[in-house]
Amino acid sequence: MNWRHIFLNATAFALLLAGGQARAADDELLDAPEVTISAAKSGNAGFYIRGDLGYSGWAGEGDPSLQAFDPVAGTSDTATFDDVRFGRPFSGSLGVGYQFNDMVRADLTGDYFSGRFDASGEADFACAGEAIGTSCAGDARADYRAIGIMANGYVDLATLAGFTPYLGAGLGVTRLDWSDVSLTTECVPGAIACSGAAAATQSLNGDSSWRFTYALMAGVSYDITERLKFDVNYRYSQIDDGGMFGGTDIKGFDDGLSRHEIRAGLRLSLW
């Protein structure tokens, strides 16, 4: 056998081997599990209900302040709290919505959360009954609760193996109800010594008001069944500022609430 025959036989063998490997690779691809990327199923338009639980461990308190009126001088002074803490970070939400088409849906939700407000600070002006030249340290404590009504819109993006990421935004109002506020004040000596009077504690009537609120969301849902979805999302919301408490000579104002929430819940299609 000459070199030409050897070369031709080797080439034929290589081609047969490559063909067999290609057929094996094609068979493996045919046997591989199917993964699809698609939008929501066509025709799935209709109503849905939803429920969520949230955790807001990151709340921005802004700069709450109080305004004190001096009836002797006839002037008002304003001071801000230096140390502010908000507690009780859990929340809940229920809603009903409508899926308009493959990508767009909207819902109306009712939100509820409550909290604890603790703050302390020192004002440049004197406490009631103390001489000018002293300053006034104060501690404030109160509970609050909030009920919000939000209209939300969402854009569902492509679905990958049952997971659907989405973006959303909402507008609405929140009624913020402050309980009676406990305010304790104590004289701090300065250029002038304090009178020696003990710290004074007073209870001030809490305010209630409706506040404009907006929210931004980003999340992902997972198809548990064809109609039931598990939903996890991040939501940032901002509630406008307003009054906290009021008395004859002193009033308090909050600087609004900004809330960073992680929420999880279920969404059930009714069609």
The appropriate CATH architecture of the largest domain is Beta Barrel
Order of helices and strands: HEEEEEEEEEEEEEEEEE
Distance between the termini: 77 Å
The residue ranges in which pLDDT falls below 50 over 5 or more consecutive positions are 10-18, 32-42
- Secondary structure category: mainly beta
Strand residue percentage: over 45%
DSSP helical segment count = 1
Could you characterize the architecture of this molecule?
With 271 residues, the chain is mainly beta. The protein folds into two domains: 1-32; 41-269, Beta Barrel (Porin), CATH 2.40.160.20. 11% of the residues lie in helices and 63% in strands. The chain has one helix spanning 3-31; strands at residues 37-38, 46-60, 65-70, 75-80, 83-87, 90-99, 104-123, 135-156, 159-160, 163-178, 181-188, 200-206, 208-223, 228-239, 242-246, 250-254, 257-269. The strands form two sheets. An eight-stranded antiparallel beta barrel has the order 2-6-7-8-10-13-14-17. It has a two-stranded antiparallel sheet with strand order 1-9. A hairpin with a 3-residue loop joins strand 15 and strand 16. The longest helix is centred in the N-terminal third of the chain and has 29 residues, at 3-31. The model is unreliable at 10-18 and 32-42 (pLDDT under 50).
